[in-house]
Design brief:
This is Class I glutamine amidotransferase-like protein. Helices cover 23% and strands 18% of the residues. By secondary structure, it is α/β, with parallel strands linked by helices. The protein has a single domain, classed as Class I glutamine amidotransferase (GATase) domain (Rossmann fold, 3-Layer(aba) Sandwich). The chain has a 9-stranded mixed sheet, covered by helices on one side. Bound molecules: 2-acetamido-2-deoxy-beta-D-glucopyranose (NAG) (6 copies).
Amino acid sequence: MSLLLRPLLYYALFLSLVPTFSQSQTARGLIYSATADFRHDSIPTARDALIARGQSIDILFDVTEDPTRFTDAGLTPYDLLVFLMNTGEAVLDEAGKAALQRYLDLGGNFVAIHSASDCLRNTTFYGREVGAFFDYHPLIQNATVDVIDASHPSTNMLPAQWSVQDEFFLDRYNFKSDPRSVGAVVVLSANESSYLDPGPRRFDQGTPHPTAWYQERGAGVENGGILGRSFYTSLGHLNQTWQDDLFLGHVAGGIFWALQSNTTRAFNSSGQVGNPGTLPGTASGPATTISRSNPSSSPGTSGTSRHVCFPSTPSNSLDIGVVLKFLERTHARVH
Ligand SMILES: *[C@@H]1O[C@H](CO)[C@@H](O)[C@H](O)[C@H]1NC(C)=O
Ligand SMILES: *[C@@H]1O[C@H](CO)[C@@H](O)[C@H](O)[C@H]1NC(C)=O
Ligand SMILES: *[C@@H]1O[C@H](CO)[C@@H](O)[C@H](O)[C@H]1NC(C)=O
Ligand SMILES: *[C@@H]1O[C@H](CO)[C@@H](O)[C@H](O)[C@H]1NC(C)=O
Ligand SMILES: *[C@@H]1O[C@H](CO)[C@@H](O)[C@H](O)[C@H]1NC(C)=O
Ligand SMILES: *[C@@H]1O[C@H](CO)[C@@H](O)[C@H](O)[C@H]1NC(C)=O
């Protein structure tokens, strides 16, 4: 045999012995943006941006606000779920939560964005899968965010001190617990000396200030399940945020990294959830977009805020009397 061919042969032998988990199918993701409390008006912008950006990392997104999609059959086709700016306990019923738990236990991957840390607050496994629940945020001001782990795909395109102007990063979320306590690795940290936070801080969220993080083993997995990955970023409040290339790179990097758990079918032929290679849309019907027209209350410009409760409506028509009554109540409660 020629000396030239021998290395190639060894290489081929090596490949046949080492299991590989390269992506064999376009991954499929489900974006869930239902809200039961405060509704961010940037949700449609965010959904469109995620769908467009998904092409660059070979993931095809369906979007829904329909909680009845949370069944075993409804979730099985997906390599990844994205909880996008959800709020409130009522975004899933008990059966939906159980289906979500089973999906995670089967190796499903999970990404949560912005106020997705402020939904299902009574659901312990969900909080662990996100990493921590939202507590409150100080309102509009400029601030810098420090990259504290530049090696991660969600941060490797960011400047070490990510300085953002024009209310771009409205929210420096504070959390009810330290995500590091469930095994998360914090990659972004709000620079607390770059903005004012009148508090009060009622919980210990650890230092440095957690702003975005990842979990190699999603802590919401129970019953000895297969450990998919979880990624969370607290950024993403405004439309402008979703038009910023660096921010989109940050989110797409987190999604890309989560998929690389290789626990799902687009990457692993023995995976139990994920895209097995059927044509997109055939496994559970066509992608659905259900948009609700709940107006969102506009944030103030000072002080702090907990997300306020907004009655959610199933239809596009909203009784103006209900809105006015709600606004009266809200006005009385929020300062
Ligand atoms: C998943 O597979 C890719 C190769 O396709 C590899 O680089 C990566 O390390 C794998 N991830 C895990 C967690 O094994
Ligand atoms: C953000 O975009 C949405 C939809 O694209 C729009 O309805 C909303 O008014 C925008 N919000 C602001 C504050 O411009
Ligand atoms: C959540 O838990 C709190 C206190 O534990 C309780 O007061 C509240 O009713 C619960 N909410 C829902 C929607 O289950
Ligand atoms: C944020 O910084 C920019 C540029 O320095 C400035 O124009 C803008 O007014 C600042 N916004 C706030 C809310 O302070
Ligand atoms: C944090 O922000 C302060 C005030 O803007 C600045 O002086 C300091 O250099 C920043 N520190 C880091 C580590 O980014
Ligand atoms: C591939 O999937 C199987 C079955 O779900 C799982 O046991 C295995 O750990 C997965 N491989 C990787 C690299 O995660």
